[in-house]
Amino acid sequence: MNPEDMLSAADRAVYAWQLDLPGFGESAQVKLRRSTALVSRCGGVGGQIALSLAAAGIGKLVVAHAGDLRPDDLNRQTLMRHEGIGHPRTESLAATLRAFNPGIEVEAVAENAGADNAPALVAAADIVFSAAPLFEERFHLNRAAVRQGKPIVDCAMYGMEGQVIPVIPGRTACLACLYPEIPPHWRRRFPVLGAVAALTGNLGVIEGIKLLTGLGTSMAGRMIYFDAAEMRWQTIGLRREESCAVCGSGNGEVGA
Amino acid sequence: MALRIQMHFTGQLARAAGERERVLEVPDGSTLGDLILALARGEGGEFASLLLDAGGRPRSTTLRVVDGQQIPPGADGLALEDGAEVMLMTPIAGG
Fold first, then answer.
1. By C-alpha distance, which of B49, B38, B55 is closest to B16?
2. What residues contact A52, with CB distance under 8 A and at least 6 apart?
3. How many CB pairs below 8 A link A and B?
4. Distance of CA B24 to the CA centre of its chain
5. What separation, in Å, do the N-terminal and C-terminal C-alpha atoms of chain B show?
6. Distance (Å) from the C-alpha of residue B49 to the closest C-alpha of chain A?
7. Cβ <8 Å between A161 and B70
8. Which of A50, A101, A206, A242 minimizes the number of CB atoms within 10 Å of its CB?
């Protein structure tokens, strides 16, 4: 057997409890190790996505997030540290992730996703986790992922609510199927309980690991929605739009 | 005869309404679009501006969900049934 298809003794030691998962096993762990995940933004949602992917043993993480750490990031951005205030967020996140799991590769990109860099960021990944606080960035990633046929897991929260939309391009509804234009009322500032952001991110990671390994039943084609205030959970069937500007017959450029 | 519709609001819409759930009665034969217009006109203010565009038409970006299934904005002519559960979700992008 090719050594790359096997786990090392060190891998088995770290992931022993995960390998006990029914339907998972060594083949799934190897699939994770061979996979690269792009995480767009490492805020409350994206930071948890990166951390949980690192814990699960993803082979490589590419985390994109511009700007310097601010005090008001710290109620939710758990990859950061107080001493990092005023310094690039990528410095804190890369140090935390590498210290947590030195067995994975971490590439920190001090940029947010935009029209210019989204295609290249997506091209380097097997799966995309979208967690930016602006729809414009989410639409750029959605378009690039659909065009390249890469699965994308869109994870978003607001206050005590969260939602996760796993997308398999060409098969299930993409973000532009749901929102045919940039939602005009969304604002960059939104209420956040850090635990709700982390919960949203972890739901996204669960769905991403399903897509990468075949574990469980993927919710692609559905939205997972929860309201933690009332602990109300549901999944919603999503309809792919044949006229979608991104994944269908439409020619528009949503969010361009 | 009136239809009793169980409404659910999420995100900014729930915040503007001050509640997440409401039972609404609409005339028999009402469509999903009729329901959105009736809600917006009854509530007014920020709630209405979240649901309707400047021309008074239902916004395409509001996610409509009827009995657990998303309904595209082009299908606002969907006839509602008594006892239906309708969820209106404002888009969220907190990350």
1. B49
2. A201, A202, A205
3. 93
4. 11
5. 45
6. 9
7. no
8. A242
Is A229 domain-assigned? yes
- Flag whether A246 is in a domain: no
What's the average pLDDT block by block, 10 residues per block, for chain A (256 residues)?
84 96 95 98 97 98 96 94 95 96 97 97 98 97 98 98 98 96 89 97 98 98 98 97 92 57
**Which chain B residue has the Cα nearest residue A235?**
B68
Q: Is residue B95 part of a domain?
A: no
Structural domain harbouring A21: 7-237
Model pTM score: 0.96
Identify the H or E element spanning A236. strand A232-237
Q: What is the CATH number of the domain that holds B55?
A: 3.10.20.30
A240: phi then psi, degrees, rounded to nearest 5:
-75, 130
Q: How many domains does chain B have?
A: 1
CATH, residue A201: 3.40.50.720
In chain B, which residues have their Cβ closer than 8 Å to the Cβ of A184? Answer: 59, 61
CB of A178 within 8 A of CB of A165? Answer: yes
Q: How far apart (Å, rounded) are the C-alpha atoms in residues A222 and A225? A: 9
Structure tokens at A33: 């190790």
Residue B94 in any domain: the answer is no
How many other C-beta atoms lie within 10 A of the C-beta of residue A116?
A: 9
Pairing of the two strands A161-167 and A222-227: antiparallel
Calculate how close chain A gets to B6, using CA atoms only, in Å: 15
What ipTM was predicted for this assembly?
0.95
